[in-house]
């Protein structure tokens, strides 16, 4: 329903509806609106991949004041 709403220009959030303004992201939205199970499969795979990313603690890493520059 979410992707169908975007295709129908009925997205709730402007930032979400903006996905339809770019040809690349619009084609992805249209694809997911036609095959919603594809979204869930790909989302699940992305979450599994994200879960494998190692988390570092304060002693192992740093919190940057500017993401582009090492403190």
Descriptive report:
- The protein is elongated and about 50 Å long.
- The chain has one domain.
- The mean pLDDT is 93.
- It starts with a helix and ends in a 20-residue tail after the last helix.
- The protein is an all-alpha fold and 71 residues long.
- α3 crosses α4.
- It is built from 4 helices and no strands.
- The longest helix has 16 residues.
Question: What is the topology?
Answer:
Layout: H1 2-7, H2 14-17, H3 23-34, H4 36-51
InterPro entries: Haem_peroxidase (IPR002016), Haem_peroxidase_sf (IPR010255), Peroxidase_pln (IPR000823)
Organism: Nepenthes gracilis (Slender pitcher plant)
Protein name: peroxidase
- Secondary structure class reads mainly alpha
Give the tally of structural domains.
1
Order of helices and strands: HHHH
Distance between the termini: 44 Å
**What's the count of strands?**
0
Radius of gyration: 18 Å
Total DSSP helices: 4
Q: What is the overall pLDDT average?
A: 93
> What is the overall shape?
elongated
Question: What would the keywords be for this entry?
Answer:
0% strand, Peroxidase_pln, single chain, mainly alpha
Outline of the structure:
The chain has helices spanning 2-7, 14-17, 23-34, 36-51. With 71 residues, it is an all-alpha fold.
């Amino acid at each position: 329903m979410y992707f169908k709403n975007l295709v129908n220009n009925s997205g709730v959030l402007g930032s979400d509806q903006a996905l339809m303004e770019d040809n690349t992201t619009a084609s992805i939205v249209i694809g997911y609106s036609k095959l919603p199970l594809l979204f869930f499969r790909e989302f699940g795979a992305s979450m599994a991949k994200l879960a494998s990313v190692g988390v570092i603690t304060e002693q192992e890493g740093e919190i940057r004041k500017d993401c582009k520059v090492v403190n």
